[in-house]
Amino acid sequence: MAKKTSQSKICNDVDETMIPEDCTTDHDENFGDSFDLAPKKNDKPSFKYQSVVRKRDERNKLDAQTCAQCEEYFSDLSPRKRAEKIRNVCRHRHVFAPPKSPEHFWEIGIPDTLECKRRGYIRDEEDFSEEELSRLRERRRRYRRRRSDDVEK
Ligand SMILES: [Zn+2]
After folding, report:
1. Cα–ligand 1 centroid distance for 71 (angstroms)
2. pTM, to two decimals
3. Which residues neighbour 75 within 8 Å (Cβ) at sequence distance 6 or greater?
4. What does DSSP assign to residue 147?
5. What is the Cα–Cα distance from 27 to 48, expressed in whole angstroms?
6. pLDDT tens by residue, 7-54
7. Average pLDDT over residues 105-119
8. In angstroms, what is the span from residue 114 Cα to ligand 1's centroid?
9. How far is the CA of 98 from the centre of ligand 1 (A)?
10. Where are the domains of the chain?
11. Bridge partners, 93 (sequence order)
């Protein structure tokens, strides 16, 4: 009841019976002229979000995920022991876990040629199949034909 009296101090013309019991938001002066708007009861968003969860017991309720470094660190344990360790120790706890970064996402700079070839960024002509090669040759032929047409004009 103390809450309702504090609300009625803010806006005198509001009928107290119109304010729901579980309403916690403070109302501004023009609340009285918008009675057709129902106050929001559920403030939880309908989409996935990132939030900070504090307090150890609150965090322990959340599921623990592992990052690549954690996976490597716990890799020598047996699967059962590993799962138990991750559940008790791991600090990656989210209400909604964000997607993991793609491989090499956080590497700075351009990798050397050998590494590029290994990852498949660069391909030698020997690596192409016969079908891909014929498609490439046709593309080159069309390009050269168009260039020679442009030069004649
Ligand atoms: Zn980790």
Report:
1. 7
2. 0.45
3. 82
4. H
5. 28
6. 444 445 555 555 555 555 555 555 556 667 776 677 778 899 888 999
7. 92
8. 30
9. 13
10. 2-31, 56-89, 113-152
11. 64
- Confidence band (pLDDT; 50, 70, 90) for 115? very high
Question: Which pLDDT does position 9 carry in this prediction?
Answer: 45
3-class DSSP assignment, residue 87: helix
Contact 47, 93 (CB under 8 A): no
Q: Which residues contact 29 (CB under 8 A, 6 or more apart)?
A: 10, 11
Percent of the chain with pLDDT over 90: 36
Which amino acid does the sequence have at 90?
C
Q: Whole-angstrom Cα distance, residue 147 to residue 141?
A: 10
Ligand 1 center to residue 107 CA distance, Å? Answer: 18
Cα of 57 from ligand 1 centre, angstroms: 20
Q: How far apart are CA 53 and CA 95, in angstroms?
A: 8
Q: Are 88 and 66 in contact (CB under 8 A)?
A: no
